[in-house]
Structure formats: C-alpha cells, structure tokens
Design brief:
mainly alpha; 13 helices; globular; cell membrane; Dipeptide transport system permease protein DppC (TC 3.A.1.5.2); transmembrane helix
C-alpha cells in the first residue's frame, strides 16, 4: 500500500499539481467547501430547516460584525429567522450532490453512446451524432427546462417535491451527454485503428470486450477533464433552475434557491441574504473550473 501511494505521489500528474500554486489553492478551497457541505449536519451551528428551532424574532439580523448582529448568527439571518451560515452549508451540499449525480449519469450515457458510435461507425454512428448535433443547437438550460417541464406535467402536483431531485439530475444529465459522446467518439476513431486493437481482433476477442477493456481506458483522459468542467456547468444549471423556481423544493433549498429568496431583499438593505449564497456559488464553481484547467494541462502530453 505504501509503495502504491509513493508511486501515485511521484507520478507526473501529482508532480504537476505540486508545482502549480493555482491548482493547490483551488484544491484546498474545493476540499473546504466539500467538508463544510457534506458535514453540514455536524458543522452547522443550527438546523435552518427545523421549524422548532427557527425564531421569527431573529429575522433579518445582519452579520455578526455589523451593528445589530450577534455571534449566534455569524452571517446573519433571513426573513424567517434562519441562520444563513447553516443554510449555506446545507444548500451547498444539495447543489454539489445534484451536480455530481448529473455528471455521473451524463458521463455514463455519453461515454457509452460515444464509444458505440466511434467503434461501430456506419449508420449507427451517423444517427447518434445527428441527434447530438441537434441537441447541441439548443442551449443546455432550455433542454433542462423542457425535460423538467415535461416530467412535472406527467405527475400530479402533489408529487412534484418528491420527484424534484431525480428530475433535476435527469434533466441536467440529458442536456450534457452530447459533449461526452462527441469527445469519446473522436478518441475512439483514433484508438480503434491502433495495433493493439487490430491484434485483439485477429485473435478473436469479441467487439464488446475490445471496446470496454482496451479502447475505453485509453479514451478516459479527455473524459475526466470534461467531467470536471461539466461539474461546474451542472452546478450553475441547477442554480439557474432553482432560481427560476423549477428546482429543488423550499424544504431542501440549494444555493440557487437561497439566491432567489435573497433577491427579494437585495434592494431593501438586507444584502447579506443574497450576497453570501452568490459568493458561495462563485467560489464553488471557480474552484472546480480551476481544477479542470489544471487537469487539462496535466493530462496533455504536448504541454509537458
């Protein structure tokens, strides 16, 4: 185990990470956000969604360093008296979980279709790529809105809150799979003509085995970079949908929901209700994008 960790630490990717200050800072910021969000149940001083602990007398309190603030509410409270710092931790967790689930599902669909398209070729390749081209002609947020609207129209209104999470994940995933499919298809077209693939065909290895055992591992580098960048896009898409009121239910708000709620108070003096959730969203997306940029450079042999 120690030898494996040593080889991993001395690898080219980790050497590049250690010598890239921006990547180190982005990693530290991302880890802090992940620890705070995923550990919100232990770190948050209050449970902002427990009605028994919410006191309307504490509504609209400013941050602790401003006049009228209190150390019990570090970043102030919202219009219902909920601790904004605790709400940020819980909201970040919702945004991250939806983003991760959407990226994984989108990657599974896109990688599978791209691998099949590039390896099989012919009419199947043409059909899959034309579907991807048509979808890419529409903005991802419109595709997500369309899928979300169709799903909500298909179920009774009383069940909308219970299906909000899977619908959001599915909508964002179905809006993002073409990028993976096109990337994997291009790499597969190159890899399937390599000598090791031709040798596997000669000895009678089945096509599915060649695709998933030999070709797939060699096309995952660009996919990992794309997944990192897509995570930031998925989080922003979820925040946009929640801001528009078609995202997660109010009982489990994300950063987008918190920004939408705070937007009503932005010009009345309670700036902290929307500024802090917006800043948390910016820091989260920025850290992911910086990591994606570093990973793209680290995995590109032409830049090493």
């Amino acid at each position: 185990m120690r030898a494996v960790l040593t080889r991993w630490w001395d690898s080219d990717v980790m050497w590049s990470w250690r010598h890239t200050p921006v990547a180190v800072c982005a990693t530290v910021l991302f880890v802090l956000l992940m620890v705070g969000s995923l550990g919100a149940g232990w770190i948050a001083p209050h449970n902002p969604f427990d009605l028994a602990s919410v006191n309307l007398i504490d509504a609209l309190l400013p941050p602790a360093w401003e006049e009228g603030g209190t150390r019990n509410y570090l970043l102030g409270t919202d219009s219902q008296g909920r601790d904004l710092y605790s709400a940020l931790l819980y909201g970040t967790r919702v945004s991250v979980l939806i983003g991760l689930a959407a990226v994984v599902l989108s990657m599974l669909i896109g990688v599978g279709l791209g691998l099949l398209s590039g390896y099989a070729g012919g009419r199947l390749d043409a059909f899959i790529m034309r579907v991807a081209d048509v979808q890419l002609s529409f903005p991802a947020i419109l595709i997500a809105l369309l899928i979300d609207g169709v799903a909500r129209a298909a179920v009774p209104a009383g069940q909308h809150d219970s299906i909000a999470f899977p619908v959001l994940v599915g909508a964002i995933a179905l809006a993002g799979w073409p990028q993976y499919a096109r990337t994997v298809r291009g790499s597969t077209l190159v890899e399937k003509n390599r000598e090791y693939v031709q040798a596997a065909r000669v000895i009678g290895v089945p096509s599915l085995v060649i695709m998933f055992r030999h070709v797939l591992p060699n096309v995952m580098g660009p996919v990992m970079v794309l997944a990192t960048v897509h995570l930031a896009t998925a989080i922003i898409t979820e925040a946009t949908l929640s801001f528009l009121g078609v995202g997660v239910p109010p009982t489990s708000p994300s950063l987008g929901t918190l920004i939408r709620v705070g937007n009503d108070f932005l010009f009345s003096g309670e700036w902290w209700i929307t500024i802090f959730p917006g800043a948390a969203l910016v820091l989260l997306v920025l850290s992911v994008n910086l990591l994606g940029d570093w990973l793209r450079d680290a995995l590109n042999p032409r830049l090493n």
